[in-house]
Each structure stands twice: as structure tokens, then as C-alpha cells.
Amino acid sequence: MTLNWFYLVLIYIVMNSISKLIQKYVMEDEVVDPTAFGAFWHLMSGIIGLPFIFTAKLIYPHSLKIWLIVLLSASIYSACLLLYYHALNNTELSQTEAISTTRSIWFVILGALFFEETLNLSKLLGVGLIFAGLLVIYYQKRAKTSFGKHHIFVLVYALLVSCAYALDKFALGYFSVGLYNSLLYFLPGTITIILFPRTLEKMKHLIRPRKNNYLILLSCFVQIISTLSLYAAYQIGELSVVGPLAQTSTVLTIIFGIFLLKERWNLKRKITGIAIVSVGVIFLKFSVF
User: Fewer CB within 10 Å: N-end or C-end of the chain?
Assistant: First the structure.
């Protein structure tokens, strides 16, 4: 495995964090409907990503099986979108993010089961430290601890999105990155609109010439760069390493939040968690035992 995958993941982490920061600012507008925002954001990202299809040789499969896998992955992403937003509207953000860190565990399991990726002590320690660091950041003793159906939604979301990433890694062996990237934005947005036709009506607010809507487009462009980098990393890197590392984008988002948005609640816990995650990244990057 070459070193290039690591730098591609770093690009993803930075760009994804910037995109999240912009989305967070936009979502503070109470007029924005989460489902409409998600569908619109995916569709616009797909459109903005179209020029990148032609930056490299166009590759696509002729097998119906591969196209069905792509459709399955897109359907899973649509379900994840609904589960995550539904859970987020009924649970605290800290609990949602803490539970969703279980993705790190699923990445290792799926990588070993379906891609025959080797497990060594460095990798297990790295994933474990990333998982622990994110829990330190998000877990709150004072939060309501009763485990309800919305917490189960987050657990299911974490499993499903990990499966979707695994499907992406497999499918990317048959696609050029640019084409696959656009498909995986177009399809979830389209599926959401088909399942929830009223979403189209709610999207009208998002196409008006307003500052927030311009920021949505900027977020889409930044996100396209991030996922192009991530998919390229999946093509040459291991799921059990790339997946957990990519999840650390939330750490950079927190750092941006501290300095740019003045979000300094639980600052000591955040710094401790970031330090633990950083050690985990070192174990994954320099896996020697």
C-alpha cells in the first residue's frame, strides 16, 4: 500500500470539515427543511461534480451486477440520511455523534471479512484510540442516558453507512472516480425526492438568490473535492484504515468550531479527545507492529 492514500485522506478531512462548517451555518436558518436540504445538497453536488468526470479516462462497468451494487449503495445512503436527521431531531448532538463513532469498529470488521485486510496490533490500537478519543469529545455525563429507539436509529445508521462505504470501495474497482462521485450524489438525492415528493416544494426556498443559498453551493463544491479525494484513497488504501481516519474529520470540524465559531464548551474534554485521536492516527499511519 503506497503512502499516497494518506495524503488523499488528509485532503478529504480538511475539505469535509470546511463543508460541514458551512452546512452548520446554513442549517441554523429555521426556514431550511432538513430533508429538502439533504436532497437539494446531494443533487447540486452531483451537478457541480460533472466536470470532474472528464478530468481522467472515463471508466464504467458493463455488468448489471455492479450497477445494482451502485443502486444499493445509493439507497443505503438515502436511508442513512433519513435515519441520521430523524435521530438528530430527537436526541442530543453529543449522543448522536458519540454513538455514530461505532463506524470505526464496523470498518475494521468489514475490511477483514470482505477485503481480506490484515489486522495487526498497530491498526487495532489506532482504531481503538480514534474511537475512544471521539467518545471523550462527545460523551456527556449530564446528558439523558436512557437508550431509546432514536439511539438505535443512530446505531443502525453507523452500520449502514459503513456498509455503503464498503460497497463503494468494491464498486470503485469498476469506475473512474469522477463518474462514481457524481452518481453517488445524484442517486440519493433523486431517491429521496421519489420517496418524499413534497420535498420538491420545500426545495424552492433553496434556489432563491440569497447569501445562504450561495453558501450551500460553495459547500457542495468543497464536498465534491473531499469525496473525490476519499474515493481515490479507497481505490488504493484499506477500508479498515481509510474509514477510521476519514472519520477524524469531525476533530478538525471541532477545532474550526473552537477558533472560528467560539464553541468552547467542554474545552478540556475536546483537547483531551483530540490528543487521543491524534495518537490513534499516528498508529494507523505508521503501522509497524
Answer: C
